[in-house]
Write a structure and sequence with these properties.
The complex is a heterodimer of chains A (334) and B (525).
Chain A lengths: L1 H28 L4 H5 L6 H10 L6 H13 L13 H36 L4 H15 L2 H15 L23 H7 L3 H38 L2 H8 L4 H28 L4 H6 L5 H10 L3 H29 L6
Helix pairs in contact in A: 1-14, 5-6, 5-9, 5-11, 6-9, 7-9, 8-9, 9-11, 11-14, 13-14
Chain B lengths: L1 H23 L12 E6 L14 H7 L7 E3 L6 E3 L2 E6 L5 E6 L13 H14 L2 H4 L4 E8 L2 E6 L6 H4 L23 H5 L8 E7 L3 E6 L12 E6 L3 H10 L4 E2 L4 H7 L5 E16 L11 H10 L2 H9 L3 E3 L22 H10 L6 E6 L6 H14 L3 E6 L2 H10 L4 E6 L7 H8 L16 H12 L3 H17 L3 E14 L2 E2 L17 E2 L4
Parallel strand pairs in B: 1-10, 1-11, 14-15, 14-16
Antiparallel strand pairs in B: 2-3, 4-5, 5-7, 6-7, 8-9, 9-10, 12-16, 12-17, 13-17, 18-19
Helix pairs in contact in B: 9-11, 10-12, 14-15, 15-16
Classes of the chains: A mainly alpha (334), B alpha+beta (525).
Amino acid sequence: MLRLVRQRLAMLVLVLFGVSFITFLMSHVLPGDPAAALAGPHPSKEVLQAIRDQFGLDKPLPVQYLNYLNDLIHGNLGTSIRSQEPVLTELMRYFPTTLELITFAFIFAILLGIPLGVISAVKKNSFTDYVVRLFAVGGVSIPLFWGGLVMILVFYAKLGWFPASGRLDIELTTPETVTGFYTVDTLISGDTEAFFNSVKHLVMPAVALGYVQLAFIVRQVRSSMLDALSQDYYLTGRANGLSKRFLIIRYGLRNALIPSITIIGLSFGSLLGGAVVTETIFDWPGMGKYVTESILGRDFPAIMGFTVIIALAYVIINLLVDLLVYSLDPQTRK
Amino acid sequence: MKSRLRARVSLLSVMALVASLFIAATAPANAAVSRTSLIVAMSADLDYLDPAATMDNAQWKITYPCYQRLVEYNGADTDVVPGLASSWKISDNNLVYTFTLNTGNKFSDGTEVNAKAVKYTFDRLLKIAKGPADNFGDLKEVTVLNPTTVSFTLKRTSPQFLYTLAGNYGGIVNPKVANKAVNGDMGQSYLANRTAGSGAFVLTEWKKGQFIKLRQNRHYAGKKPAFTSVIFKIVGDASSQRLQLAKGEIDIAEGIPTDQLANVGKTKGIVVVNQPSLTVDYLYINNSKGNPALSKKAVRQAINYALDYKGIIDVTQAGFATQMRGPIPVGMWGHDRNLFQYTTDYAKAKSLLSSAGVSNLSIDLLYSARKPWWASEALLIQDNLAKAGIKVNLKLTDYATSRQMIDKGDFDLSLGVWSPDYADPFMFMNFWFDSGSFGLAGNRSFYSNPAVDKLIREAANITDQKKRTELYVAAQKIVVDEAAYGYMYQKNYLLPMRSNIKGFVFNPMLEQMYNLETMYKTSKA
């Protein structure tokens, strides 16, 4: 197990190197000049040149890349061209924001998705199964930009249960940043009103995003569960008089979870880069919006910083998934 | 049968559990905004706020009420009146401006606003040499004569100089910012997300991606504003903005698309401000670096005759715009009511093309998604020009790329908007037509005519407004006849707000900005 961890961490260095190289190349061969995008409506040639000089945009690409790597090794992700703020500061602000949203989305999706998947498999081709499958199909086929707006229309405009946008009511004090999760930071600072308020803000975006994930989870759990329940060990267990419930949970679910965990882990990883649509509709100030705007403004330091952080997080998530599978599946331990 | 029923029950119980979790987290709906605070919804977050660096009206809505200037625009008028300066004298050769400062004005930390602060502001601005410095290219030096008197010496006559002082970049900055410099940036990173002025408000909190909060500056020397706090909240989605405005959760919504505003205005409790602005939407026609056919005057005229002005305005601006008559918009001095205006005339366009010996012309139209209406505008232009026999290929690209291509002249036609920084026709004539400022700098049609250069350069060098008007009118006649651009339309300024918001004054020079110090709210809409 330790070997696995060490192997992965060694790989991380290579991954970061490769990812930074490819991103650097791709973002710089794109046409578009950040100076032209940011210098105001009618910049003179001198002003454009001054901005290029400030960020070293005129230097040869290999030099720019080596400078970047050198800074990176020293833990410096550079300064954002758009906001003039250190990229690290910005990422430390947006990354936890996205992480909080997708964590809650996944908690919702997993808590609801796994039981629904199991029920659906056990009651294969029954009315219940059809209802669950229909519900799950909705998650993948209802477009988020529409579903999200309908949620806002119903739960904000008509019922007034949840706020339409943001992370916290403007009148409330923003908690001191410790984890970057408002739901955690408000508790640390002991502000229960802000805590409940931040939970309220989370519900709609997390459910909207979680519903999509839920659909995948239900379908995945259902099919691996069906697979597990048709195995010989299940029939043998039944023949030996073990209860259905015991077999489903102890053997069926456990086996069905292994492929599901891999899928869930991967989709969690893919969302770390931000759930752009959800973030836009609910004004969730996360990574998706940040990186979209950075790409449009050709904010190279921000794009690079984003990629490095995501690569890092992806490798870590994959490692965690492997460790989880490792602990669930005795065969992998050999 | 029984087991099915049980499964259904368990499914229902899971759903009920989830539903109850939702409801448990909810509380009664929010109340409307209080009378002493104003909440404005904006569509996107801002970049940086240093008055010596930012050149974007969107950022200026924060900085303008937080700083004061030597001179200020007069309400809705484009004239300037005393601000921090109580009076000024201009030397006989028009090169030295001497300002006498009012006493008692203080920055938000209590530091006094004096002549040294004025000098510091402009020295800093010129040294930083970003966009704002472009507007002070004529400024040679600032001299402190005594604590309340300061003089500006110019390199050459600059009739628009006084007006540039009323722009956002003329905001006087607290000299203590110098202590916040890092790596010789003169406090740029410090002022990127803070304010340090003597205006009625001061920025107290900026949660990136969420909101910007302003509070009253307690050292402000003027009349105490009605609002104790003003919040600019980011609501990216237009539909959300509309819902929140209808509920009274926000007071002003900046991001509702024009085509929805007619309906929004009918909603109870909402009014839509509708005023002519000085922002124009026009068509760059690449005179010298694009398709060679475009260097022919007749071809450019044909394009101007082929545009369906009314159709374009109706579709892209829901009718809230006026066709341009020459480059200088209505409301700016130098506009000529008798100037020739192109009409939609496809037959005329066709005959002009054949007289120029041009047939089967195929050109590209470059645009980006920067303005929401450009996509439909591009389609309309494609359709209009097809009727005159010109094939237009739409080239949609992202903003950063389109800007670079425009700067290099790598296009045939392109869409653009322009709004003046100060109330002087210089902003249109000298920027758009001087052959010395090709590209992003202003002359985006890469138009060159020595006769026009001569007229507009002379107009920029004298201060007699009557003579200047004559020169600009003469130049306009040429550039309209030569169809240097596609002169499309002048937009209206539209802004939906709750009907209990009073005192908002729209000044066409201060588009997107708010006179927060004099706005107020009545109790009920």
